[in-house]
Amino acid sequence: MKTTTLFEDKLAPNKDQLLHHALYHKLNSTEAIKTFMEYHVFAVWDFMSLVKALQRKLTCTDLPWVPVGSPSTRRLINEIVWGEESDVDQFNQPGSHFELYLKAMEEIGANTAPINALVSAIQNGTPWRTALSEAAIPNEIKSFIDFSLTTATQAPVHVVASVFTYGREDLIPDLFIAIIKEMAQEKGSGYDTLVYYFERHIEVDSEEHGPMAQQMIQELCGDNTQLWEQANDAAQEALQKRLSLWDFIESKI
């Protein structure tokens, strides 16, 4: 675990920038939160491709089935997939965290048309790069998605695991949850699913999936210095991509 600690120490400055980003102080109205969600939803969506890429690389998804890799790593990623792809909402109804986020957007009155159009194009057989290039979304969002999906489809497994672990939703601070809760109390309705989503997602990330993902990287990189360096480079780039995304969203609010 010493290697993991050194690895995380290197990432700390970028993570600190994200956790104290000025964006959060601008999320002080329903309109601001709508804008945030309309761009952030793309990060919620492309996150699932990183999850599924890890499942494909670390478990057997072909037929006939044969054992693949480490049983403990298989268990880790399958538990993460189960939670991300088929969790339950506040009414105990199953769904992915992406679908839960869409529901929260609809409740608050945010525009879901751009993300739905992109997902629908891919569902209908359009290659993702084509669908992304043709999507009516800002280039800054396209760049973020391109990094995530290129990583998911082309990078070695330890790099995918690093981007998954260190560039994602545990970067949202308690301050944001407090803001959402305060606005929910003021407005009285429309925020229930949004509050549940962030509370649930952060709870799962910090208490379950975060430690699991760190263990996964430890197992994948082992004592190989080169693998740890590659994982660190990927994590740093993921954090920079998230920082650029936050800068862009802040400029739109």
Report on the structure:
The longest helix is centred in the C-terminal third of the chain and has 30 residues, at 192-221. The model has no long low-confidence stretch (mean pLDDT 90). The chain has a two-stranded antiparallel sheet with strand order 1-2. It has twelve helices and two strands; from the N terminus they run H-H-H-H-E-E-H-H-H-H-H-H-H-H. With 253 residues, it is an all-alpha fold. The protein is globular and about 50 Å long. Helices cover 77% and strands 2% of the residues.
Summary keywords:
77% helix; globular; 253 residues; mainly alpha
Number of strands: 2
Major sheet size, sense and barrel closure: 2 strands, antiparallel
How far do the termini sit from each other?
41 Å
- The amount of beta strand, in percent, is under 5%
Strand order of the largest sheet: 1-2
Oligomeric assembly? single chain
Give me the Rg, rounded.
Answer: 18 Å
Runs in which pLDDT lies below 50 for 5 or more consecutive residues are none
Please trace the helix and strand order, writing H or E for each element. HHHHEEHHHHHHHH
Nearest-integer average pLDDT: 90
State the helicity in percent bands: over 70%
Shape category: globular
Q: How many helices? A: 12
Structural class: mainly alpha
